[in-house]
Amino acid sequence: MASSVNPTVRRRRLGQELRRLREQKGMTAEEVAERLLVSQSKISRLENGRRSISQRDVRDLCGVYEVEDQRIVDSLMQMAKDSRQQGWWHAFGDIPYSVYIGLETDAESLRTYEPQIITGLLQTRPYAEALIQGALPETSVADVEKRVQVRIRRQERISAEHNPLRLWVVLDEASLRRVVGGKQVMREQLEHVAEMSQLPHITVQVLPFDVGAHPGINGQYSILEFADTADSSVVYIEGVTSDLYLEKAPDVQKYTVMYEHLRAQALNVEQSRQRIEDVAKEYAR
């Protein structure tokens, strides 16, 4: 059974603490790797939370950093233990973007720009099925269904009665016009987006074609923010074979400014909902 502990977040927080201890000691990742007879890349992966970390790793690193307070060591060891538990998504097997799901599950707010498709958290099941089948034509029916189930399960974050995810979406008009699954599927999909956009914690804006070139022209990205101040914001950029996670403050700031420009250039909330409803009616003809 999957644990309620979020292993992705535990790994990330643990990595941040280990990086802080290393920097306090005035050591480079290369120096630490040399002391432990491991690769520098392993130290980097442990610190950025992208790799599972064992209690032995924590013990060895605390030894190198000469951590004398046993309470700190015990706390870090417990975090390492928690980080190796399974989140709800592990029940679905190997999910390529499981790191992102872990972050999204724990995030307080999510801002995303989608240039081509309706964002996953607002997708209907028929739209998600058609989208995944089209994007991954060699994927088996069983794997398509698994991905759809994960996508629907993720949507519980925006439908939660208590503390739902605060979602802000900027959709390029192309995502409304790209016919995925046929006109009926698109009509129902856009009606769903219009309905969800009326919830107080969900904001949807449409970036119209006549805006021309804009800061998001290079593609999709998301910005995740967390309630715990110990967790820095993350920019997520989805890739075909691998994903990119940016956590350095200057990178996050740059994408945040880009997003503010997108929001300013997009139609306002009322105009966006009207545009979505108008396009939905076109699919009904």
Automatic annotation (TrEMBL):
Tell me the domain of life. Answer: Bacteria
Question: What residue stretches are annotated with the HTH cro/C1-type domain?
Answer: 18-72
Q: Which Gene3D superfamilies match?
A: lambda repressor-like DNA-binding domains
- GO molecular function of the protein, one example? DNA binding
Q: Which CDD domains match?
A: HTH_XRE
* Name this polypeptide is given: Helix-turn-helix domain-containing protein
